[in-house]
Structures are given as structure tokens and as C-alpha cells.
Amino acid sequence: MTNVAEQLNLTELSSFRNLDEMYVAAKVCRACNLCKSRTNVVLFRGNPQAKLMIIGEAPGQNDDEQGVPFAGRAGKLLDKILESVKIDTENDVYICNIVKCRAPGNRVPTPQEVAQCKGFLDAQIQFVAPKLILLAGNTAIQNVLQNKNPISKVRGKWCDYKNGARVMCIFHPSYLLRNDSREVGSPKWLMWQDIQEVKKELDALNGSTT
Ligand code: URA
After folding, report:
1. How far apart are the C-alpha atoms of 165 and 159, rounded to whole Å?
2. If you average pLDDT over residues 24-47, what whole number do you get?
């Protein structure tokens, strides 16, 4: 059940005036139990002016320790995928998560934890104002699009989102680490198709022909 303090918290979360204001609030957030086991609140990496945003699930152990999202094995693979199409991981993309604190044992965050953190993600989407958003894996897809279809059905297609942005669902890099095949039709092969499409759209937005 939501108590009054939590309700107040949720109200506050929706009224940030800019990203810095949100970062300050998030770093001291104690709205859910994840604050008890976290080392760091993990907010983002990359460029707040980027046209491309990638949203994952939640920080893992390395991310929690370093205070940076996708700092572990899955993140290394994500970077490799982006770099394979010359998407610069520092300048061309802003990377964040549905929830900002690690869930013990890397379990999936509960609906209540997601709800408590929603104001932070909303502020990121509002102030970064990306043109393209990639939702990596089921937790991101279900919570941003309220879509419960399996990822194999929804991945790889652009959908219109708020404020002129478009969203594409992609496989989570952790899933790709568990599915190593590169055969035609495999998750890694499909990711390769998706990231080339993302690069094409990003170049079109940047007016580039390369
Ligand atoms: N690290 C993150 O920051 N997000 C994920 O979804 C997985 C690992």
C-alpha cells in the first residue's frame, strides 16, 4: 500500500525543472527498499544532448559499484554493438534504466519499485528529448510501452512515441550473451539488423550520408 510519504515523493518526482535537479533528488532517493542495498544510484552515461536514448532494466553489480549503467559484461557487448555501426557511446547516445538502483541478486524490479522510479525516467525522457529511443529487453518494453508481447514479436519496428520521438524494442544485451549463435535469424543476427536500421535513422536525423 502506498503511504502518504510515498505519495508526496511521487508528486515531487514529476516536477523537476531540469536534469540536474532530478539527479540531485535521485541520488538521495529513499522511496523504495532498493535504497537499502544499493552502493550507488545509477543514473546515466553518455550525452544528455544525444538524439538516441537506450533504456535498459536496472543496474547490475558492476553498475551499482561504479555508479554507471551498463558497466559490466552486458554493457561491453552493448558498446561493441553500437561501435560496430560507428555510434559513439560517449557522444551519440544517452543510456539509462527503468530503475536507478540495483535489485538484490539482479532480480526483476517489482511494479512498485518501477512506479517509484518512474518520475526519474520521465524526467530523463522529457529533458534529453531523444528522437529515437531503444527499449532493451522486456522490463523496458513492458514499462514504457505497456506491451506484454514477447520481444520476438515486437523487436525491430519503429513505433511513434511522445513528442515526436520514435521507439524501437531490441534484445537486451544480457540475452545476447546467453545466445551466442550468429546464424541468420538468431538473436545476434536480428540485433545486427536492428542496429543498422538505428544507425540509418540516426544518420538521417543528423543529415549525414555516410
Ligand atoms: N546494466 C544496466 O545498467 N542495465 C541493464 O538492464 C543491465 C545491466
Report:
1. 9
2. 98
Q: Is the CB of 109 under 6 A from ligand 1?
A: no
Kindly report, residue by residue over 42-83, the tens digit of the pLDDT. 999 999 999 999 999 999 999 999 999 999 999 999 999 999
What pTM did the predictor assign?
0.92
Domains plus CATH for the chain? 2-71+86-170 (3.40.470.10)
Mean pLDDT of the chain: 93
Please choose from 38, 54, 174 the residue to mutate so as to test ligand 1's pocket, defined by most ligand atoms within 8 A of CB: 174
64 lines ligand 1 (CB under 6 A): no
Which residue type sits at 210?
A: T
pLDDT category, 14, cuts 50, 70, 90? low
Any atom of ligand 1 within 6 Å of the Cβ of 78: no
